[in-house]
Design brief:
Elements (H helix, E strand, L loop, with lengths): L7 H24 L6 H8 L3 H7 L3 H5 L3 H13 L9 H9 L8 H10 L2 H26 L7 H25 L4 H24 L1
Helix pairs in contact: 1-2, 5-6, 5-8, 8-9, 9-10
């Protein structure tokens, strides 16, 4: 599906939103979410506090600014499979793609900021549950599952669970002094093994 190119006004709004969100993440990473004010974010992005709230209704939205995009990528992954492929094939590719360049970077920073704030953890759990439900609904449709069949919900939960585990293990291996290439190899092996186990379970 093709998308219409953005007009000048829409493009400027999009750029402003990204600038604000990027400035917020830099401050959250440096000072912690709870110790950063919206006024500081506004100053760093060179906009007014009112402008920040025009784009982000709550402070937490600055951190989870790509929630809708993330969920859509998961839904696209459910549909990303060729005839004869397992219903998990696209989800496996989606999980692997998160770590196919390197096993650290912004995802680690995101995780550490979130770990330092009970507010973000609570909001993250709500968001995670919403993503899981959306993925489960897409899987149920793809599988032709009955309404009372828990399999799609189980698979959705397991697919999402791959990422925090991969990040946690990558961080552990990095802290142990393993080279970045070895960390990446282990993470990809871990993800593939995770999905192999799910596939075997489906086979049984």
């Amino acid at each position: 599906m093709t998308t219409e190119p953005m007009g000048l006004r829409e493009r400027k709004k999009h750029e402003a939103r990204l600038r604000i969100a990027d400035a917020a993440l830099e401050l959250f990473a440096a000072k912690g979410f709870d110790h950063t004010t919206v006024a500081e974010v506004a100053a760093a992005a060179d906009v007014s506090v009112k402008t920040v709230f025009n784009y982000f209704p709550a402070k937490e939205d600055l951190f989870f600014d790509r929630a809708e995009e993330v969920e859509q990528r998961w839904l696209d992954a459910v549909a990303d499979r060729s005839p004869g492929e397992s219903v998990l094939a696209g989800l496996r590719r989606r999980s692997l793609s998160r770590f196919d360049q390197n096993a650290d970077g912004s995802a680690f920073r995101f995780r550490r900021v979130m770990a330092g704030s009970a507010v973000l953890q609570g909001r993250g759990q709500q968001m995670w549950a919403a993503h899981e439900d959306a993925i489960a609904a897409a899987l149920a449709e793809a599988m032709g599952a009955a309404v009372d069949d828990p399999t799609p919900q189980v698979l959705a939960s397991q697919a999402l669970g791959t990422h925090p585990l991969a990040l946690r293990m990558a961080e552990r291996w990095s802290d142990a002094g393993l080279a970045a290439e070895e960390v990446q190899r282990r993470v990809l092996d871990l993800i593939n093994r995770w999905y192999d186990v799910l596939e075997e379970g489906i086979g049984r």
